[in-house]
Amino acid sequence: MKTLLTSLFFCSFIHATITQYETNLFCFTPKDQNETAVIRTFTQDGTRRQLVVDTQTLQTRLQSMVKTKGYPCGDSPYSRLLSQSITIPSPLQNDGITQAPKGISVTTDLCPSSKEGFEHGLYEAMIQKFPHPVPVTLFITGRWIEKHEQSLEQFRSWEKEHLLSITWGNHTYAHPYHPKEPLEKNFSLSKGYDLREDTLKLEKMLLSRGLTPSVFFRFPGLVSDQKAVQTIHDLGLITIGSDTWIAKGQKVKEGSIILLHGNKNEPKGVEIFLEMLEKGNIHEINSLERNLP
What is the pLDDT of residue 5? Predict the structure, then answer.
């Protein structure tokens, strides 16, 4: 039995090869389906595939290569949110969409961390509290994945067992941070940092592990400028901030996009959130895809 489990565990880490990764942004309407936006075209283990977005539901999926010129994407929830997320002026912190029109959404950031494991109890508490699968957005980084492959497998297991419904958000591959630098020269604004390529690198990493990237992006440290926001917009991604960073004492309300850290780097926020669950202060949570349109 031990040999079999070891074999299965090893097989789960076999990664697909992603090459010829191209950025797109055009729409077409498949028969009997909603308008669809193609945002990436790539080769996966020798087969041409596309990452596409349902412009009404914001759900992403993979499909075989569709040969069509398409057309410019028209008015839809997806295109409106893209426009909304790039509204000028651009603040240095917390740009993009910070609140939903309805409901409560839980987002957890998995920034690079030297700590072992992750906030396992946070996700278990939500699984115990709410109907399955529980919707949660993981804003994940590549450097966290590299050091926490076994933790990633736990998320995949919860997803396969329909306990969690995970939206795989982009928090960049490297998530640069320099403790001595001011915000305007830090995180994604660091000197020499290529935001576009680092964002795409994280997407390819997810795809190689059989995970489907969403259209949601969160800046490391919530720090950005107008150029950075434009870069993400041009990739067809929607910038998500937060109006309820729990560890900073911000209160949950209708439309809240809750920000927690699932990497053990900010236990205070997790403790407060767990107390709220225990007291019954949060009755329902929905996915960003459901709350934003």
Answer: 41
The answer as to whether 37 is a domain residue is yes
Can you tell me the distance from the alpha carbon of 270 to that of 117, in angstroms, rounded to the nearest whole number?
15
Question: pLDDT tens-digit profile of 111-147?
Answer: 999 999 999 999 999 999 999 999 999 999 999 999 9
Question: How is the beta sheet containing 60-64 ordered, strand by strand?
Answer: 18-28, 36-44, 47-54, 60-64
Decide: 170 and 195 in contact? Cβ < 8 Å: no
| CA gap 191, 273 in Å, rounded | 36
Q: Which pair of tokens denotes residue 67? A: 């040969």
pLDDT at 184 exceeding the cut of 50: yes
Looking at the structure, do residues 186 and 268 belong to the same domain, yes or no? yes
- Closest residue by Cα to residue 63 from 32, 37, 89, 92: 37
Q: How far apart are CA 264 and CA 256, in angstroms?
A: 22
Residue 194 has which token pair?
Answer: 């290529």
Question: Are 98 and 203 in a shared domain?
Answer: yes
**Distances, alpha carbon 82 to alpha carbons 166, 172, 222, 224, 239, in Å:** 21, 18, 17, 16, 8
pLDDT > 70 fraction of the chain, expressed in percent and rounded: 96
Per residue in 259-274, pLDDT tens? 999 999 999 999 999 9
Find the mean pLDDT for residues 157-168. Answer: 98
**Angle between helix 226-234 and helix 195-208 axes, rounded to 10 deg:** 40
Residue 182 resides in a domain: yes
Residue matched to tokens 């407060």 = 272
Residues 82 and 69 in one domain: no
